[in-house]
Each structure stands twice: as structure tokens, then as C-alpha cells.
């Protein structure tokens, strides 16, 4: 009997070790397969999955209710016309994958949530609850507008930041004899953020048979960054006139770096008067008060203070 128990335990552990090894082999091969798919399609599968998790289930639940209020939201469209919303979502990268109708409905949902929370605060008797009954719905209505516009601005700033290095790398690859499409596919793998997203989508459109000029114009519509638009317009002009693309990328990179240096100098020049104001109205008065206070304390409590002179008299 003991031999059977020992044999059973031994078989269990052998089976367990084999199962664990197969699980690790499966995970390793899955990772290799996903990396291969990312290299071929220029899409980071893990990044996309992480982005979906980060968005949270709360937004997804709200969008379900937003569909029911979509018609009402499109009628109550203060500071959020449909065309403007479409433009904001496109330039922000549409992180939560919202349609224009869902965005308009989401405003109404958050407005109702703000009203209910303000009413509950008033019933409970929280401090300043009478103001919350008015402010919470207003905040709920304008919160999606503020968030999407802020995302669009950050995305365009990130695009501007990575563009010079991207152009230098592309220019070097083109001068080495690599074609533009191949250079874009290889270089964007080493960049993150909106720059990778935009040119990955550009490559996908080219692969699907979209004309190059149309793909360039789609890039212009999705982004309003001046430097990026200047690059795409130069590429469009070079496509029509036959200007070498490598030269275009190199000139654009030099111009952008020069423009960035001028911006830094301009910001430094604007900062100097601000520093002078702070020094004049904050630092200098505080320093004078400290020195005057020390002198007064020394006159009162020091060795040669006024009190000691009166005592000696």
C-alpha cells in the first residue's frame, strides 16, 4: 500500500513538472508570435492591450448609456459642434474609441451624474452643497470637452518633440539607398507615441492601395501641428515636382531644430522680466525686512543695546 502511495505522489509531481514546462513553452511561443505580428503589421499588440486596460471599464460602461442620450447631446452642443468634436477625436488619437454620437451622449450622462451627486450632497448637508448642485452638472458637461482637447494638445506636442530625430533617421536611411516605404517601416519601430501611430497608419493605407497623395492628405487632416504639416506639404510638393525625398527630410530636420532653438531663446527672453519682477517685489523686500529685523533685535537685546545703556545710567 505504501508503495502505491509513493508511486502516486511521484507520478503527480512528474505530471506537474511536465505541465509547468508546457505552460512556459506556450507563453514563450505566444510572445514570439506576437512579436512577429508586431514586426509585420507595425502594430504593438501589447501596447494596444495595455491601452485598453488603462482606459478602464468605467468609460466603457458610460458609453453604453451615452448611446441612449446621443440625440439629446447633439442638440445640446454648446462649445461642441459635431464637426469640432470629430476634429478633436481625430487629433487626440481617440484613446477611448468614441464616436461623435457617443461623445455627445457622454456629456449628457456626466451632466446627469453631476446633478444627482449635487442633489445628494444637498440632501446630506455637505458644506457648499448648494453650489455643488449648480457646479457639478456644468463640470460634468464640459469635462469630456476639456479632456479630449487636452489629449489632442498633448498628442500634437509629443509629435513635435519626436519629429527632428525621426527626420534625421529617415534621411540617413534614404541616403543609404533604402526606399521611403521600407525606411518608414524600419524606423518607426524605434519610436513610440503618436509619430509611430500616424506613420503606421500611413503604411497600412499604402498597403491597402490608397494613393500616396491621398495618404499624405489624410495625415494632414489628422494633425494640426505646424512642423508636421510643413513636412507633409513638402513631401506632397516633392512628389509633384520630383524633388529628392532624402533632401526634403534633411532640410526639414534642420529647419525644425533651428525653429526650436529660436523658441527656447524666446522663452528665455520672456523669463528674464518675470525673474526681475519676482526679485524686485518678493526677494528684495523680504531680504530688507530680515536685515532690518536683525538690526532692531541687536539694538534691543545685543551687548550694546539700548536696554544696557539705560541700565548703566
Helix content: over 70%
Strand content: under 5%
SSE class: mainly alpha
Q: What is the tally of helical segments? A: 12
How would you name the oligomeric state of the polypeptide chains in this document?
Answer: single chain
Q: Looking at the structure, what is the overall shape?
A: extended
Uncertain runs: 45-50, 52-56
Under the CATH scheme, the architecture of the domain at 162-261 is Up-down Bundle
User: What is the rounded distance between the termini?
Assistant: 113 Å
Gyration radius (Cα, Å) is 32 Å
CATH top level class name of the domain at 162-261: Mainly Alpha
Task: Describe what you observe in this structure.
- The chain has 313 residues and is mainly alpha-helical.
- Among the domains are: 1-41; 162-261, Receptor-associated Protein, CATH 1.20.81.
- It contains 12 helices and no strands.
- The chain has helices spanning 2-41, 45-66, 70-75, 82-92, 100-124, 129-175, 180-187, 194-207, 212-222, 226-241, 245-301, 306-312.
- Helix 2 packs across helix 5, helix 5 (100-124) runs antiparallel to helix 6 and helix 9 (212-222) runs antiparallel to helix 10.
Offer a few descriptive terms.
single chain, 313 residues, mainly alpha, Receptor-associated Protein, 12 helices, extended, transmembrane, Tight adherence protein C
What is the compact description of this entry?
The protein has about 325 residues and is mostly helical.
Amino acid at each position: 500500500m505504501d508503495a502505491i502511495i509513493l508511486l502516486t505522489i511521484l507520478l503527480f509531481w512528474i505530471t506537474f513538472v511536465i505541465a509547468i514546462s508546457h505552460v512556459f513553452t506556450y507563453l514563450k511561443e505566444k510572445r514570439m508570435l506576437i512579436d512577429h505580428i508586431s514586426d509585420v503589421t507595425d502594430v504593438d499588440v501589447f501596447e494596444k492591450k495595455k491601452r485598453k486596460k488603462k482606459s478602464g471599464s468605467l468609460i466603457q460602461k458610460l458609453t453604453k448609456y451615452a448611446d441612449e442620450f446621443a440625440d439629446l447631446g447633439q442638440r445640446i452642443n454648446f462649445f461642441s459642434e459635431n464637426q469640432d468634436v470629430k476634429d478633436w477625436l481625430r487629433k487626440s488619437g481617440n484613446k477611448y474609441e468614441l464616436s461623435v454620437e457617443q461623445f455627445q451622449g457622454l456629456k449628457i450622462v456626466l451632466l446627469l451624474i453631476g446633478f444627482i451627486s449635487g442633489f445628494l450632497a444637498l440632501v446630506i448637508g455637505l458644506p457648499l452643497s448648494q453650489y455643488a448642485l449648480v457646479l457639478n452638472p456644468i463640470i460634468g458637461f464640459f469635462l469630456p470637452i476639456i479632456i479630449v482637447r487636452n489629449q489632442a494638445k498633448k498628442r500634437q506636442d509629443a509629435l513635435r518633440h519626436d519629429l527632428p530625430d525621426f527626420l534625421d533617421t529617415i534621411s540617413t536611411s534614404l541616403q543609404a539607398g533604402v526606399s521611403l516605404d521600407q525606411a518608414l517601416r524600419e524606423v518607426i519601430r524605434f519610436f513610440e507615441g503618436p509619430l509611430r501611430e500616424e506613420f503606421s497608419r500611413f503604411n497600412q493605407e499604402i498597403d491597402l492601395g490608397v494613393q500616396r497623395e491621398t495618404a499624405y492628405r489624410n495625415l494632414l487632416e489628422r494633425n494640426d501641428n505646424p512642423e508636421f504639416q510643413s513636412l507633409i506639404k513638402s513631401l506632397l510638393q516633392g512628389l509633384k515636382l520630383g524633388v529628392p525625398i532624402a533632401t526634403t527630410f534633411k532640410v526639414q530636420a534642420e529647419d525644425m531644430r533651428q525653429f526650436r532653438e529660436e523658441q527656447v531663446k524666446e522663452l528665455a527672453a520672456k523669463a528674464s522680466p518675470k525673474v526681475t519682477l519676482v526679485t524686485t517685489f518678493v526677494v528684495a523686500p523680504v531680504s530688507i525686512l530680515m536685515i532690518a529685523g536683525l538690526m532692531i533685535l541687536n539694538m534691543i537685546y545685543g551687548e550694546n543695546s539700548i536696554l544696557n545703556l539705560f541700565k548703566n545710567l
